[in-house]
Design a protein that fits this description.
alpha+beta; Double Stranded RNA Binding Domain; 4 strands; 10% strand; globular
């Protein structure tokens, strides 16, 4: 029997976002809903592999699965663009439990391990290299991750410390500790209900729930980790091309000198 996995779509005029409520951190974009559904099926299989890599037990029935659209939101913006609004899906109205919080913290640990493995030993040149036609350097992306994590918690009308270290790696550690400390003592009155943040209001969708916050805490870092992987690959390709170019110049210089 084929297992059905529910997918939520955010459909805009220029692109579609797809996320999987049962697989936090599984989020993809496509130009069309059909393309997004094709990509999300691949992403779900990769998500199960990600779980296994970090020692999680994956149900055997997930080896044979298909996706079905549980929700579809039609929006007038491009879901693919950075800084897009954060819509609220019906699946995110359910109250969270302590079990949900513990699971989220575990997934956040896996995501942070992956991120630090990528960036801990790269040079400042690489950190500050801006890839062509891309919006962020790796350093800027890391700073963004560190800034946004506590921002998600404030969507529940919670005040958190606003001062942060300037060093980007210290900032990542500092804001992660703030978020984890809050999750460990998550107030019961914030576990259910719909919240309208008083700060940083969104003109498109200013509605948040605890479940939506937990999802974004995992989605966001995983999404940017994939971006950083792409930037690192582009950086290595650039270095390789430059090395080949220098070798070619050296050979030409040698030929001229020989003549």
């Amino acid at each position: 029997m084929v297992t059905k996995i529910s997918v939520c779509l955010e459909v805009g005029p220029e692109g579609t976002g797809a996320f999987v409520p049962s697989c936090p951190g599984c989020w993809v974009f496509g130009r069309t809903p059909e393309r997004a559904l094709m990509k999300v099926k691949i992403a779900i299989a990769e998500w199960f592999e990600w779980m296994k890599k970090h020692g999680e037990q994956v149900p055997t029935e997930t080896k044979d699965f298909d996706v079905e659209v549980a929700e579809m939101l039609r929006v007038d913006y491009n879901p693919v663009e950075a800084g897009k609004p954060e819509p609220l899906f019906w699946s995110e109205l359910h109250p969270i439990t302590k079990k949900d919080i513990v699971r989220t913290m575990r997934l956040m640990t896996y995501s942070r391990e992956d991120l630090l493995k990528l960036v801990s030993n790269i040079s400042n040149e690489c950190l500050d290299w801006l890839p062509p036609k891309n919006p962020r350097t790796i350093r800027n992306c890391l700073r963004h991750i560190a800034y946004v994590e506590p921002w998600y918690i404030t969507r529940l009308n919670v005040d958190l410390p606003s001062k942060r270290p300037r060093n980007v790696f210290k900032m990542l550690d500092y804001t992660r500790k703030i978020v984890v400390d809050y999750l460990r003592g998550f107030p019961r009155d914030k576990m259910s209900g719909i919240f309208q943040p008083k700060k940083d209001l969104s003109p498109t969708c200013n509605l948040w729930t605890a479940r939506k916050v937990l999802r974004r805490l995992v989605d966001h870092e995983r999404l940017h980790t994939k971006y950083i992987e792409k930037v690192l690959q582009m950086y290595e390709e650039k270095k390789h091309a430059l090395l080949c170019q220098n070798k070619s110049k050296g050979l030409l210089r040698g030929v001229k000198e020989y003549k």
